[in-house]
Amino acid sequence: IAEDLKTGTVAQRLAKIEGRMGVLLQQSNALGLQSVVQKIQGLQSSPNGTAQIQSLMSAFIGSTQGTTTDDVASTFATLKETNPQVAETFKDVAPEDMKAAVMLLGMTQLRDSLARDNQSFDQDLQILKMTMAKDNPELQAAIDRLAPKAKSGVLTPTGLSKELRGLTGEIVAASLSGQDVSIEDKAKARLNSVIKIEKNGHQLSGTQTQIAITEAQKKLDAGDVEGAVALLQQIQGPAAEKTQPIIDAAQTTILASQVQQLIGTNLIQTLKGMGQK
């Protein structure tokens, strides 16, 4: 899977992980895990169901206060016996598979949260940190880097695209400010506002800043956040300051996706191990 994840946009790489997980869930000896994922996805489709998921996650987070790594699995199994809502949702899950089931809950909920602009995902991270990340220093470090953004959420590629469209006028205006801007660049910018010239899908008209923004916009519309950041970082001068907020937001989106990818690959290893029992 490491080789498979070297190519494609973040969204495409995450889709590959989801596909692998789906296959492994079908092959796993722990059939109850499939029903948990289906239940969670069903709950996510309604406001009432979303509230039930939040209640479940709060119960799991509360139950692990003061526990050690070795206690987590047994704590979840005990909670299933004492909490009716947990018992109903995870009724088909064997006690020894409860930790993996809670990991799937965290992963599925994180995916849902990150698919929405500025959706809080702090509980999702807490669930994953106290289960999977406890045994994985790399993942724990990545979660810690992302945690400060968890309350406010992050932007999706679509959300970033809208933000960039909203900032384009300010960025272009800033690029044309100052005494060192050539008459040629000012003329290019004015002409580009009237007519845009493209060849083989790439913009030829306008200033370098306008071209970089247009190409970055296309990257975001295609879900290629890393490619968009690389283009926006080429913008210099006063325009760079106006561009920085969208770069910062995009880098946070990339970090969130990287954490999601790490979680997915770790869950794949967990499910592989369960399937070999």
Describe the 3D structure.
The protein is an all-alpha fold. It has 13 helices and two strands; from the N terminus they run H-H-H-H-H-H-H-H-H-H-E-E-H-H-H. The protein has helices spanning 10-27, 32-43, 47-63, 72-82, 84-89, 98-114, 122-130, 137-146, 157-175, 183-194, 208-221, 225-232, 238-275, and strands at 198-199, 202-203. It has a two-stranded antiparallel sheet with strand order 1-2. Helix 3 packs parallel to helix 7. It is elongated. The chain starts with 9 loop residues before the first helix and ends with a helix. The relative contact order is 0.14. The mean pLDDT is 84.
Provide tags for this entry.
277 residues, mainly alpha, two-stranded antiparallel sheet, 69% helix
What's this, in brief?
With 277 residues, the chain is mainly alpha-helical. The chain has helices spanning 10-27, 32-43, 47-63, 72-82, 84-89, 98-114, 122-130, 137-146, 157-175, 183-194, 208-221, 225-232, 238-275; strands at residues 198-199, 202-203.
